[in-house]
Design brief:
The protein is of the alpha/beta class. It contains 13 helices and 13 strands. Strands 3-4-6-7-8-9-12-13 form an eight-stranded parallel beta barrel, surrounded by eight helices. A two-stranded antiparallel sheet has the order 1-2. The chain is globular and about 55 Å long. The structure holds flavin mononucleotide (FMN).
């Protein structure tokens, strides 16, 4: 009998396929659809700090001139359609309607101004809170150290407000990501989970209309490698859970991330492309892969390919690099 269950953020999930925060989890119907298709947990669409502070106009202005329909949906969709009170209501109704964990999400650039709202999300019944730090370090005066300290400060300020676990969703653009991950994910002040990596909206240039436009909002399967690398390198070294996201499109991608050491995976683009049924397709493929390897549960193989579990951790990555470039085995 296969057992796909896992612990994540102190919660029991029936499987490791979590629906990532996105437009599909904006409303109750989407939440029900994800649950009916078999998701292990759901991260609700992010509410923006600006929305909590009732400064919604900032979002609209930031959207600028993006004529591409998908892009408009993406940018509009990136901010939650409802305000903070409706969001609390969504948390409450989602909790009443489905029997899987509901993780609320806030996209923020500071913690101070909205932190007490985190307590309201907890009271509304959120099982956990995911913070997506949408802070773009766009001035040369700002040092890397200042940016990283901001991440630590946001995490600690929010954690001080709630008892529910707090996950931090981060992007890959740091000069020494391993060091930052350690500061956020190790020790008594650690996040409950690190979620990597956030896929920031892409900018593109339309050479015919001579305009800056938004790039494709949806990932491709090829984009799995950045999170896969860091899960491989960090699994077993932090005190927090690791959620992998970006480029996970099928059951074998989930298997890869679990072999690397991920606690759970988060999926989004593949559901946009294939419909909610893709969640059950992913689970079926994962199960049949597990059967073919005679794995009964996730602990039978989780982290097996991580650097921590390798025979030669010292030269682990260098070895893959040399093999890749020389074709030598
Ligand atoms: C239309 C759309 C809206 C999104 N909105 C959010 C959001 O509100 N908060 C967030 O943390 N991530 C958001 N994301 C990012 C996803 O949660 C996910 O991390 C990203 O798409 C990478 O996963 P994927 O490769 O499975 O798509 C959004 C993605 C898309 C495509």
């Amino acid at each position: 009998m296969l057992d796909l269950s896992t612990r994540y953020l102190g919660l029991t999930l029936k499987n490791p396929v979590v629906v990532a925060s996105c437009g599909l989890t904006t409303g109750l119907q989407g939440v029900k659809n994800c649950a009916a298709a078999g998701a292990g947990a759901i991260v609700l669409k992010s509410l923006f700090e600006e929305q909590i502070n009732a400064d919604v106009s900032a979002l609209t202005e930031a959207a600028g001139d993006f004529p591409h329909t998908e892009a408009i949906e993406y940018l509009e969709g990136y901010g939650h359609a409802c305000g903070p009170q409706e969001y609390l209501e969504l948390v409450r109704s989602a909790k009443q309607s489905v029997d899987i964990p509901i993780i609320a999400s806030v996209n923020c650039i500071t913690a101070e101004r909205w932190a007490d709202y985190a307590g309201q999300l907890e009271t509304a019944g959120a099982d956990a809170l995911e913070i997506n730090i949408g802070f773009l370090a766009n001035t040369p005066a700002l040092t890397s150290a200042e940016v990283e300290t901001r991440y630590e400060r946001i995490l600690q300020t929010v954690k001080a407000q709630v008892k529910i676990p707090v996950a931090l969703k981060v992007g890959p653009y740091f000069s020494s990501f391993g060091n930052l991950a350690k500061r956020l994910g190790k020790g008594p002040q650690a996040a409950g989970a690190l979620v990597f990596f956030n896929r920031f909206y892409q900018l593109d240039v339309d050479v015919n209309r001579l305009q800056v436009v938004a790039g494709n909002p949806y990932s491709t399967q090829d984009e799995i490698h950045t999170s896969l690398r860091w899960i491989l390198l960090l699994a077993g070294k932090l005190d927090c859970d690791l959620a992998a996201t970006t480029g996970i499109h099928d059951g074998l991608d989930v298997a890869k991330q679990l072999l690397a050491g991920a606690t759970v995976t988060q999926v989004c683009s593949t559901i946009y492309r294939n419909g909610f049924v893709q969640i059950s397709n992913i689970l079926t493929q994962l199960e049949s892969w597990m059967k073919s390897h005679e794995f009964n549960n996730l602990d039978d193989f989780r982290g097996r390919l991580s650097q921590t579990d390798s025979k030669d951790p010292e030269s682990y990555e260098r070895l893959q690099y040399i093999k890749g470039l020389t074709g030598l085995e």
